């Protein structure tokens, strides 16, 4: 008789424990994802971006800020921060003697770039992408060519298709800037 009572009490407890464990493992146990209170930008440091493709990569938070930083007269990056935490970075870089995007990437990739587009002009993964502009050459910088990068640092979200759109559209937009058309170095 005692075994029947113990079993009757333990079965519902076991079922509730299993349900709680399943909810915790599936990520449905309480909505811990932080709400996004900021607007997703349409430009990053003056260069248009596909905000629809960018949105899933960005974390929740209260404020999003961008800040342009010069790496030298040959490069500029745009840091994207959510609540002061670096979440993404775009870059424009003049390189002399760079034969292609693979050379430009060098050791700066944070993931395996397992996708290519336009014959290797674009290299990308689910988190980052690199590109080469067309017809952006600087006589002032020894014939250097302009390359681009779009790197995510915060999201667990990976989407190679969205990253391809981001780096392709960012690179195409960079081709329309005064930097490209005039071949000027970045102001120091």
In the sheet with the most strands, the strands line up as 3-4-5-9-8-7-6
* Tally of individual helices: 5
Give the distance, in angstroms, between the N- and C-terminal Cα atoms: 86 Å
Shape: globular
The helix/strand series, from N terminus to C terminus, equals HEEHEEEHEEEEHH
User: Count the strands?
Assistant: 9
Mean pLDDT: 83
Helical content band: 25-40%
- Poorly predicted runs are 1-31
Q: Major sheet: size, sense and barrel closure?
A: 7 strands, antiparallel
User: Beta-strand level of the residues, as a percent range?
Assistant: 25-35%
Label the structural class: alpha+beta
Cα-based radius of gyration, to the nearest Å? 23 Å
Brief description of this entry?
By secondary structure, this protein is α+β, with helices and mostly antiparallel strands. 29% of the residues lie in helices and 31% in strands.
Could you explain the architecture of this structure?
The protein is α+β, with helices and mostly antiparallel strands and 188 residues long. Helices cover 29% and strands 31% of the residues. The strands form two sheets. A seven-stranded antiparallel sheet has the order 3-4-5-9-8-7-6. Strands 1-2 form a two-stranded antiparallel ribbon. The N terminus is likely disordered.
Keywords for this entry:
alpha+beta, 188 residues, two-stranded antiparallel sheet, 9 strands, seven-stranded antiparallel beta sheet, disordered N terminus
């Amino acid at each position: 008789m005692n075994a029947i009572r113990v079993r009757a009490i333990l079965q519902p407890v076991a079922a509730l424990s299993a349900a709680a464990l399943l909810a915790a493992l599936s990520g449905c146990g309480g909505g811990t994802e932080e709400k996004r209170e900021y607007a997703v930008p349409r430009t990053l440091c003056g260069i248009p971006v596909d905000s629809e493709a960018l949105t899933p990569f960005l974390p929740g938070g209260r404020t999003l800020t961008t800040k342009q930083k010069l790496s030298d007269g040959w490069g500029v990056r745009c840091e994207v921060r959510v609540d002061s935490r670096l979440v993404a970075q775009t870059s424009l870089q003049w390189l002399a003697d760079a034969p292609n995007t693979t050379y430009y990437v060098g050791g700066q990739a944070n993931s395996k770039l397992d996708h290519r587009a336009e014959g290797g002009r674009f290299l990308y993964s689910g988190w980052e992408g690199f590109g080469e502009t067309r017809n952006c050459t600087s006589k002032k910088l020894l014939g250097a060519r302009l390359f681009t990068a779009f790197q995510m640092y915060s999201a667990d979200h990976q989407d190679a298709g969205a990253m391809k759109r981001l780096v392709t559209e960012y690179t195409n937009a960079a081709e329309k800037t005064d930097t490209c058309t005039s071949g000027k170095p970045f102001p120091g």
